[in-house]
Amino acid sequence: MIILRDISSVTAAISQARREGKTVGFVPTMGFLHQGHLSLVRQARMENDLVVLSIFVNPIQFGVGEDYEEYPRDLDSDSSKAEEAGCDLIFYPTTAEMYPQGYATFVDVERLTENLCGASRPGHFRGVTTVVTKLFNIVKPHRAYFGQKDAQQVLTIQRMVQDLNMAVAVKIMPTVREADGLALSSRNTYLSTAERAAAPILYRSLLAVVAKITNGERDANSLLTYLHDAISAEPLAQIDYISIVDTADIKPVSTIDGPTLIALAVRFGKTRLIDNIIVEV
Ligand code: AMP
Questions:
Q1: CATH code for the domain of 123
Q2: Domain for residue 280, yes or no?
Q3: What does the alpha-carbon distance between residue 180 and residue 199 come to, in Å, rounded to a whole number?
Q4: What is the CATH number of the domain that holds 236?
Q5: Which member of 37, 124, 142, 228 is catalytic?
Q6: Domain range enclosing 101
């Protein structure tokens, strides 16, 4: 496995592979890799000849006062985990390499980014879609792998790829969880012991809502009330948002009658966690 920091070396290595007829699978990340990231790498390994992982803590997707500076970083550990999972090439650019002086171009997906994390974190998705576009242009993957954990991100990137005719297949992998249901996240390292013990309330509550839907409940408001109450019962949990939306436009629904995303963001102390479930009725 090789680690490259400059764009020209990456494009040279990948052009060579493509000339040899190899397929390229790509996993964009911000590093501090866990089994969620590695599930994407393993899937890419199974489906492609060359597996590329990027590690870049993208400053333009963080808002003022968010955790850009504190975001955990550990290249040594990441590279051994990535190699073990089957990665061939890590692209690990500097911020100046990605956003040189004079940088002025941004990609904005409308509508799907208005609600949920788009409302809580203004500018976040513009940062995500911009960096993903740049990474796609640099890596030119045949397939790119994303986690369902970031459901709004996935739907936004799928929209962008379709709208901008990007020649990449977007592959979505299920959320990888701890044994107690907590979705793996690099940010889980911020949690205190008490917060970590409280955090599984998120997935437990989502599962309880799915059970209600399976039992015939279709009224979004009563499901939202249930979720609010279930999560508020945990004193360490501070709700940022809980939403029930359609998966096409990410707009709130009043009745569950199609593919529906149940998504939430909840703070435990200074740590903001997200989780979601999609139900198909
Ligand atoms: P991040 O490093 O947080 O930007 O995540 C990089 C990629 O890994 C994104 O596509 C995430 O959706 C995915 N990912 C993060 N956590 C998980 C998880 N627990 N299960 C599956 N995929 C994940």
A1: 3.40.50.620
A2: no
A3: 9
A4: 3.30.1300.10
A5: 37
A6: 2-173
- Ligand 1 centroid from CA 105, angstroms: 25
Tens digits of residue pLDDT in 53-107: 999 999 999 999 999 999 999 999 999 999 999 999 999 999 999 999 999 999 9
Q: Spell out the long-range contacts of 165-169 with Cβ–Cβ below 8 A and sequence spacing 24 or more.
A: 166/133, 166/136, 168/26, 168/136, 168/141, 168/142, 168/143, 168/144, 169/142, 169/143, 169/144
Q: 176 in ligand 1 pocket by Cβ < 6 Å?
A: yes
Quote the pLDDT of residue 108.
98
Residue owning the nearest CA to atom 14 of ligand 1:
147
Of the residues 173, 206, 233, the one at which a domain ends:
173
Residue 116 lies in a domain: yes
For ligand 1, whether the C-beta of 118 sits within 6 Å is no
The rounded mean pLDDT for the chain is 98
Amino acid at position 192, single letter: S
Percent of the chain with pLDDT over 70: 100
| Structural element, H or E, at residue 204 | helix 201-214
Residue 37: active-site member? yes
pTM of the model: 0.98
User: Any idea what DSSP says for residue 177?
Assistant: B
Q: What is the pLDDT of residues 221-274, one digit of tens each?
A: 999 999 999 999 999 999 999 999 999 999 999 999 999 999 999 999 999 999
Angle (CA) 202-206-212 rounded to 5° is 150
Q: Is residue 140 in some structural domain?
A: yes
Q: Which atom of ligand 1 is nearest to the CA of 184?
A: 19
Nearest ligand 1 atom to the CA of 174 is: 21
Residue 181 lies inside a defined structural domain of this protein: no
